[in-house]
Design brief:
Blueprint: H1 2-7, H2 29-51, H3 53-71, H4 76-80, H5 85-108, H6 112-119, H7 127-145, H8 151-159, H9 168-176, H10 189-194, H11 202-238
Helix pairs in contact: 2-6, 2-11, 3-11, 5-8, 5-11, 6-7
Length: 244
């Protein structure tokens, strides 16, 4: 069952990095300004995320604790692959709802909304880069504005039908996920910055180094909490050891 839990798509996990895009030898002032602003926003976001790591851990642990106390072992049929095809499919949808709820809880604890809102106004002479940053920002704004569902109530409602029917709240939630735009292949802070190569001044290249250092520190500070509690959530719902 580790395969299932690890492979279910989670909308907020945009982890790929784009290839570098060559820029003109003499970058336009507007491109330089936009890149400088992007770096400053990113530095502030990562620094604030690191500072909030204790609060972020508290919120994610509290979310998994609430699921454990209200609906633990409720999707064990999925782990055991028992039941009708409809029941297995509906439990898979509910497992996805649980994963998205977890991601939303984690992201709402980050200073993501303010950072994304600041990115939306940035523009470069290359429209593709402007669109990529805009899509990244829009996706982040939508995700950071989501609210966790009443997961355990939804699971209990479906369980009452033998998982043959999904509750209306779950169907509405899943349908709403399609409104989140695809941020594309450069949907990460580092991936977007890679596309800005050539727009940086000497001082900005030093800031670039700080940016990437903070990015790595943030990932190290928050990554273990995210991964540990994500796996714990899977084991709470699917049964001990089912999610790795």
């Amino acid at each position: 069952m580790r395969f299932f839990w690890g492979r279910v798509c989670v909308v907020a996990a945009a982890l790929t990095v784009a290839s570098a895009t060559a820029a003109a030898a003499a970058p336009r002032p507007g491109d330089v300004k936009a890149t400088r602003t992007f770096i400053a926003i990113g530095e502030r976001y990562f620094a604030q995320s690191i500072a909030r790591q204790a609060a972020i851990r508290h919120k994610t642990v509290a979310f998994v604790d609430s699921v454990a106390s209200s609906c633990s072992d409720s999707l064990t049929g999925l782990a055991m692959q028992t039941g009708s095809q409809t029941a297995l499919k509906d439990q898979a949808v509910l497992a996805t709802e649980a994963q998205i709820d977890y991601v939303v809880t984690f992201m709402r604890a980050l200073p993501l909304h303010a950072a994304a809102a600041s990115l939306r106004s940035l523009q470069w002479s290359k429209r593709g880069l402007t669109r990529a940053v805009g899509s990244f920002a829009r996706s982040a704004l939508i995700l950071s504005a989501l609210r966790p569902t009443n997961l355990c109530a939804d699971i209990r409602a479906s369980a009452a039908t033998g998982f043959e029917t999904l509750p209306a709240a779950t169907r509405k939630f899943v349908k709403g996920l399609t409104a989140i735009p695809d941020a594309g292949s450069s949907a990460s802070w580092d991936g977007l910055l890679t596309r800005m190569r050539g727009y940086e001044t000497a001082s900005m290249r030093r800031a670039d180094t700080r940016f990437r250092s903070l990015d790595k520190r943030s990932a190290k500070a928050l990554g273990k909490t995210y991964g540990d509690q994500y796996t714990r959530l899977g084991n709470v719902l699917l049964g001990p050891g089912a999610a790795g």
